[in-house]
Automatic annotation (TrEMBL), chain A:
<keyword id="KW-0479">Metal-binding</keyword>
<feature type="signal peptide">
    <location>
        <begin position="1"/>
        <end position="21"/>
    </location>
</feature>
<dbReference type="InterPro" id="IPR009056">
    <property type="entry name" value="Cyt_c-like_dom"/>
</dbReference>
<keyword id="KW-0349">Heme</keyword>
<dbReference type="InterPro" id="IPR036909">
    <property type="entry name" value="Cyt_c-like_dom_sf"/>
</dbReference>
<protein>
    <submittedName>
        <fullName>C-type cytochrome</fullName>
    </submittedName>
</protein>
<feature type="domain" description="Cytochrome c">
    <location>
        <begin position="33"/>
        <end position="139"/>
    </location>
</feature>
<keyword id="KW-0408">Iron</keyword>
<keyword id="KW-0732">Signal</keyword>
TrEMBL record, chain B:
<feature type="signal peptide">
    <location>
        <begin position="1"/>
        <end position="28"/>
    </location>
</feature>
<protein>
    <submittedName>
        <fullName>PQQ-dependent dehydrogenase, methanol/ethanol family</fullName>
        <ecNumber>1.1.2.-</ecNumber>
    </submittedName>
</protein>
<keyword id="KW-0560">Oxidoreductase</keyword>
<keyword id="KW-0634">PQQ</keyword>
<dbReference type="InterPro" id="IPR017512">
    <property type="entry name" value="PQQ_MeOH/EtOH_DH"/>
</dbReference>
<dbReference type="GO" id="GO:0016491">
    <property type="term" value="F:oxidoreductase activity"/>
</dbReference>
<keyword id="KW-0479">Metal-binding</keyword>
<keyword id="KW-0732">Signal</keyword>
<dbReference type="InterPro" id="IPR011047">
    <property type="entry name" value="Quinoprotein_ADH-like_sf"/>
</dbReference>
Length: 178, 586
């Protein structure tokens, strides 16, 4: 809320120091994906179109297929995440997917209008595997999403999971404001 | 800078030899923002007190220190890095879409998460006075925002700064200290309602619109008493059962309950008749119009409302039974012509510009302002309705529309328009109206919505989705309002996603590729350009401080474009998130 300039400058400086202190060791550590890496990638790269539960449907990101109902095996899922699906809105997430024929033996020029869009942010091979493993473990073949699924994704008590609570209510404690 | 005496003020101004340009010197520097001041922005030309600069939404400033002769010398005066670039929910970052307000040398700007910054612009540099962080619920609000982490600016009232947050609040902040005086929860993110537009202050009320038609909300416009923080009226844009307009929802599964009709762009106000003019967005689900047979009032409509009660005086629906996502949320620009006509003009997502008689909503003229229109042969010259419209048909037979039979269709304009939220500007001397145009087509795939199954609270409820198989460009299109004809079109390589500013002989706009440009007001010839190095997604504005004219713009691309529509402008993938205020001067 209201602050004096001196306070703000100090706060900014402290924030900068903290960010720097927190940032250094992370950069020096090995890049092994954490256990929740797949869910993190799913949230950033997939949930916008496939929705948090992977059920797909409509949205500004396109009319996405259901990952809960997909029949693809792990290798195919890795391929589709990396290469996208030509002729649809499913983007490629592998860097330079259509530069050297690594995807379906095709190059961008071969596909013309059918070239799948390129994802805004490319995923490293480990990230692609992590998100595919997440889909296989938590999404594929599952029935209708449950409260447990929703809270596993958004956090315990998340208001967005009210749909899955009895009566559809948001937990009182989580209401915004006073 | 709270203790500026009138004599100090005047001596500085005298030194600058530009006294006439400055804010009225008869008023103390910390005078409250009264209704009288908001009604008379021309008395303080150096200030920018309302979102669209005046109640008529002209975005025209009669400032000419910067003009067509010298604009080539415009340079960066100062910049300021802002915050709010962090992501939340499904969004990787916030963006800047706001219009700064300027009052007596102080700027009031917002970032995408609704933090308000008061900046002292005296002395040729910017200095942060305070920042009010509303502590917006990021994961939550971000997850139910259809189209990005956005906030389009504040309003000024009395000694308070009035702002919105994405998670649905209206906040009054003490202008001097930056302390929150009070806040009220207006929108309910539990229902997928979020707020992105700037409030409009009218007669001690804040008028608020809501977003969320992609999430099956039932849209509304609300008025809050700024003296008490209590709601005065709330008008739903989808009528309840039995109310006028409810007969235009002819289904048997209560489609109206999730009928959309959001109101997320700040409207205009005519004090002579105490009338608010406000636009209403698309029906839900966006693309499956067989789910909701009927005209679906008051979606895709221009509304005239009594400011005291919220009563709808008249409506004009632009795209009945819309299968395209053609919101009519655009600001209604109020224009008085020499022949006595009083118009409300609007550039619609559907690609047509409309002039309505603002006393009764009668159609005056309409014409396409985009290069390509695929969905209709044109407007009926009498009624202004699309030629294909048949009031007796529950499902409108627009040309080449996406529907349950023709599930994949290319539409022009694409679903972003036309013209989206970025505001137009109107030069009343030249009678020219400048539209920031998205020259587009895109492809829609319909996924039929199933009653009782498809709608889930807080999830996209769109009946399909768009895809961008072809390049999208833009233009500045100038319209002669007296004749309703296009007076000029300057094509741009990218869609215009920021909006317009008009001065007596110039027009300014920002480009998503980073450039802010100035153009000749008559010919649209480009006279000046500066590349901010950051995608521009916000409108330019102008103000005076210390007797000197400045142009300001927020830089930092956000919104829906760089997530959902980027494939139509692949080079823009190189634009990185940013959060910066640029201020220019000679």
């Amino acid at each position: 809320m209201g602050r004096t300039n001196a306070c703000l400058v100090l706060a900014l400086a402290l924030a900068g120091l903290l960010a720097g202190a927190a940032g250094c060791p992370v950069g020096a550590q090995p890049m092994a994906p954490k256990a929740d890496e797949g869910q993190k990638v799913f949230k950033e790269a997939c949930a916008g179109c496939h929705k948090w539960h992977g059920g797909g449907g409509g949205g500004y990101g396109g009319a996405a297929l259901s990952l809960r109902q997909t029949q693809l095996d792990r290798a195919h899922l890795v391929e589709v995440v990396g290469c996208g699906r030509p002729g649809t809105g499913m983007p490629s997430h592998k860097r330079d997917a259509y530069a050297d024929g690594a995807c379906y033996g095709l190059k961008k020029a071969d596909l013309g209008q059918d070239a799948p869009p390129e994802a805004n942010r490319f995923l490293r091979p480990k990230e692609i595997e992590a998100v595919v493993d997440y889909v296989i473990a938590h999404v594929q073949g599952k029935g209708d999403p449950t409260l447990a699924d929703c809270e596993a994704f958004w956090g315990a008590g998340a208001r967005t999971c009210g749909e899955y609570r009895p009566g559809g209510a948001a937990p009182e404690a989580a209401k915004v404001g006073e | 800078m709270t203790s500026w005496s009138r004599s100090t003020c005047c001596s500085v101004l005298a030194l600058a030899l530009t006294c006439g340009l400055a804010a009225a010197s008869a008023r103390a520097a910390d005078a409250p923002v009264t209704q009288d001041r908001l009604l008379n922005p021309d008395k303080e030309e150096g200030n920018w007190l309302l979102h669209h600069r005046n109640y008529a939404a002209h975005r025209f400033a009669r400032l000419d220190q910067i003009n067509r002769e010298n604009v080539k010398n415009l340079k960066v005066a100062w910049t300021m890095a802002l915050g709010g670039v962090e992501g939340g929910g499904i969004w990787t970052h916030g963006g800047l879409e706001g219009t700064p307000l300027a009052e007596d040398g102080f700027l009031y700007v917002t970032d995408g998460w609704g933090s308000v910054y008061k900046i002292d612009a005296h002395g040729g540099r910017g200095k942060l006075v305070w920042k009010m962080d509303p502590k917006t619920d990021k994961d939550w609000a971000g997850a139910v925002a259809c189209c990005g982490v956005d906030n389009r600016g504040v309003a000024l009232w009395n000694d308070k700064v009035i702002s919105h947050t994405l998670d649905g609040r209206l906040i009054a902040t003490d202008k001097k200290t930056g302390d929150v005086a009070w806040q009220a929860q207006l929108a309910d993110p539990d229902k997928g309602e979020v707020i992105t537009g700037a409030p409009l202050v009218v007669k001690d009320m804040a008028i608020t619109g809501v977003a969320g038609a992609e999430y099956g909300i039932r849209g509304w416009i609300a008025a809050t008493d700024l003296k008490t923080g209590k709601e005065i009226w709330r008008t739903y844009t989808i009528p309840a059962k039995g109310e006028p307009g409810s007969e235009t929802w002819q289904d048997e599964h209560n489609a109206a309950a999730t009928g959309g009709g959001s109101t997320w762009v700040t409207g205009s106000y005519d004090p002579a008749t105490n009338t608010l003019y406000w636009g209403v967005g698309n029906p839900g689900p966006d693309w499956d119009h067989e789910y909701r047979p009927g005209d679906n009032l008051f979606t895709d409509s221009t509304l005239a409302l009594d400011a005291d009660t919220g009563r709808i005086k008249w409506h004009f629906q632009h795209t009945p039974n819309d299968p395209f996502d053609y919101d009519s949320v655009s600001e209604k620009v109020l224009v008085d012509l020499p022949d006595g006509k009083k118009l409300a003009i609007e550039a619609d997502r559907n690609g047509f510009a409309y002039a309505l008689d603002r006393s009764n909503g009668q159609f005056v003229w309409g014409m396409p302002f985009v290069k390509r229109v695929s969905w209709t042969k044109g407007l009926d010259p009498k009624t202004g309705k699309p030629m294909e419209y048949d009031p007796n048909k529950p499902i409108q037979p627009y040309l080449g529309k996406p529907d349950r039979t023709n599930t994949v269709a290319t539409i022009c304009p694409g679903n972003m328009g036309g013209k989206n939220w970025p505001p137009t500007a109107y030069n009343p001397d030249l009678k020219l109206w400048y539209i920031p145009v998205i020259e587009s087509c895109n492809q829609i795939t319909v996924k039929p919505a199933v009653p009782g199954e498809s709608f889930k609270p807080r999830e996209f409820f769109t009946g399909g989705g768009p895809k961008q198989p072809e390049r999208i460009t833009g233009s500045i299109t100038a319209v002669d309002v007296a004749t309703g004809k296009i007076a000029g079109k300057l094509e741009t390589p990218y869609p215009l996603l920021g909006g317009m500013l008009a001065t007596p002989d110039l027009v300014f706009t920002g480009h998503p590729s980073g450039e802010i440009t100035a153009h000749d007001a008559k010919t649209l010839e480009k006279l000046w350009e500066f590349n901010t190095g950051s995608g521009l997604n916000a409108p330019p504005m102008t103000f005076v401080v210390d007797g000197k004219q400045y142009v300001a713009i927020l830089a930092g691309v956000g919104g829906a474009w760089d997530k959902w529509f980027i494939d139509s402008t692949p080079e823009l993938k190189s634009m990185q998130p940013g959060s910066m205020l640029f201020v220019f001067a000679l």
